[in-house]
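Hey L., structure's done. Input below.
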Amino acid sequence: MSELSVIIPVKNGMPYLPRTISSTLRAMPRDAELLVMDDGSTDGTAGYLSSVRDKRLKVFRNDESVGVANAATALLGHAEGKFVARMDGDDICLPWRFAAQRRSLGDADLLFSGALFVNGQGKPFPPTFQPGISPAAMPIHLLMTNVLMNPTMYGRRTVLEGLGGYQKTPTEDYDLWLRAAASGARMKRMAYVPTIVYRRHATQLSQARAWATENGDTILSASFRALASQQLGFQGSASTILYNRPMAGQPYPEDPDITDFAHLVLEAAGRLGEKDRKGVEDRLRSMYRL
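Output:
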C-alpha cells in the first residue's frame, strides 16, 4: 500500500500538464502513487499521459466530462495511500513539498500552504509569504473567506473519505473546508513556506467562476450556515455574508446580519490565544473595518 496518493483531475490540460506531472513525480516519495483523471479531454492530454513511463502514475478517463468535483472525488475512491495530496493540472510542484508537509502535519488532519505565482507564460509575480493559521483559529478564518489553496492540500485519506469528498458545486473546495471544520477536523496552514507554483492564466477554471457574486449556491450556503451556527451562534442569512463581503474601495454594505456576523467573529477571536486572536482580528478589521 502506498503511503501517499497524489490526485490530479484534469480536462484539456495541455500545454501545462507535462510540467505538472514531471514536477510532481520528482517530488513524490518512491512508494507514492500519482492518480490522474482525464475528465473528457479533447486536446492532447490523453496522448501525453499514455506516453509517461513511470509505474507510480495511474491514469483514469471519463469519456464525457463529469466536472472537477466529481472527478476529484472519484480519484479519492481509487486512492490507496494513508495520506492524500491535491494538485491542479496547470501548477508546478516544488521539490520539497511532500517531505515538508509530511513533517509539518503533526496531529492535524488537513494541511495547506502558500504558493508562488506565475502568469500563463511562466513570468513570476512578486512573492508573498503567508503566515500560518492554527487548527484553533482556522474555522473562524474560513467563515471570513477561503484562506486555503486547494492544490496545496495534504491530509489523511480517512478524513476526506468520511466527508464524502467534494460536492458538485462551483466552490467545491471552499465547501469541503467548511464541512471539514464543522466535522471537527483539525486543519492548519503552514507558515511562509510555499509548496507549489500556482499558474494564473485566462483559461483556468477558477478565473471563470463568480466567486464574489450571488450564484444560487445552496450547497455552499448550507455548509457555511452550519459552521457559522456552530462556531459563532450566528443565525442570520448565510448568503448575505457570503455574497456581500466588503470589497476594497467599495462602500461598506449596510445590513444587520453583516454587523451581527462581524461582532460575533470579534467575540470568537477573544476566546483564542493571543497570537490566534490577533490574526483573526487583523483579518476582520481589514475586511469589515471595525
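The CA atoms of residues 122 and 199 lie 7 Å apart. The radius of gyration is 19 Å.

-- N.
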